Amino acid sequence: MEALTIGSSLFPSFFLMFCLIYLIGRFIVFRNWSMNQRREASSCFISLFHGTPAVFLATSAILTHPSWGFAFPNTNFDNLVLDYSIAYFTVDLLHYLILIPGDYLFIAHHLATLFVFVTCRYLVLHGAFALLVLLVLAEVTSPWQNVWTLARIRKTESVNAARLDKLLSFPFYSLYTLMRVIAGPLFFFKMSAYYLSGQANDVIPNWVSVSWIVVVGAAIGVSILWISNLWIELYKETIGSSEKKER
Prior knowledge:
80% helix, At5g14285-like, membrane, TLC-dom, TLC domain-containing protein At5g14285, mainly alpha
């Protein structure tokens, strides 16, 4: 299937859609929340409209792909999914740059993700298969993570939010660990081995494929560190609760 041209990009439409979703979340859905809470909640809100749809879109693109391979040309469907994710990350990046400029880690994550998606979509027009698999592994936890985050934001003010936070923590951490600590690295090592072998150099310049490896590897490392800290925090909370009950 012939790849889409830049002129037929759906990015502008998706960008406007995510801007509208963001404004609805910030000024309607969370209008009664405090200013600081609204900032984080608005980001979660647009993420809810990206994560799960992106998983379904990427899965459909993978399953309907005429042939799978790390260096195969992008199909129209591949490019549509990439445009969808590029639009989301652009809107969320703007949100952080304008309202939370001090969150350097999150900003760096979005910039790195955009670099990988944009180079695949608009520069080399090959290799979407690998990125879509990684997108599925990353975003399959999105609904759990966003609901958990929203509950955490409000847990000091709402008993129900505190209960939801406690209820979701273990299953969310477990799913995140399975996807980001086990499945993600396994696929990443396979992808890295292929690109480092030079088999894709005819269609994907070496500097592009190596930069993808560096960016994805760094993202996986940060994810492992993040979830490890959450598991430690949950363990300490569980031990603390047990000791209080024994007293």
